[in-house]
Write a structure and sequence with these properties.
By secondary structure, the protein is mainly alpha-helical. The protein has a domain of about 130 residues: Winged helix-like DNA-binding domain superfamily/Winged helix DNA-binding domain (Arc Repressor Mutant, subunit A, Orthogonal Bundle), CATH 1.10.10.10. The chain is about 50% helix and about 10% strand. The chain contains 6 helices and 4 strands; from the N terminus they run αααββαββαα. The chain has a two-stranded antiparallel ribbon with strand order 1-2. The protein has a two-stranded antiparallel ribbon with strand order 3-4. A hairpin with a 2-residue loop joins β1 and β2. α1 packs across α2, α1 crosses α5 and α2 crosses α4. The longest helix is centred in the C-terminal third of the chain and has 46 residues. It starts with 7 loop residues before the first helix and ends with a helix.
Amino acid sequence: MGVFDVPASDLIEEIAVDLREKFKIEKPAFADYVKTGVCKERAPQRQDWYYVRIASILYRIFKEGPLGVGSLRTYYGGRQARGVRPHKFEKASGKIIRKGIQDLEKAGLLKKAPKGRTISPKGQSYLIKKSKEVKELLPQKKAEQERLKAEKAERLERMRSEQLKRGDVESGPREKFKKKGKEEKGKDKPEEEKK
């Protein structure tokens, strides 16, 4: 069982929870107000976005070997809208990535390498252990998603039937959107307008 045998999004979400609760990494004070890059218009809406970002950084360093802040800035960058001019690629904020790497280093999950940071033995064993836990939770999560999907479909069907009963929605094709023939076009106008 390896780290790549589970969906990355599920693994990153679980790691983010652990970084906040188990490793007690504190969110920096600027995290509530800062944008994640020049290309973004607003700060992230999620309250725990910082933990998700550093969990993603940990996963990315595990996957691609020794990485520095520069390459991670490029990875998390995006297109900046510049009005009528063409979009331009901009790198992500370096402060967030630098702080995240430092927090992961203090937790013992990363270590320094000649070309940036690499995963430590503690970090590697943690990721493998966490991926096994996520693999065990996947069937439950999938069943929960199927249940929510079925409930949503049932709720939509119930709303549709209530609308049909009230007469808000017609069950068949709408008459007013049908194309009118040449002889029907003048029927809608009053008599004085026809002359």
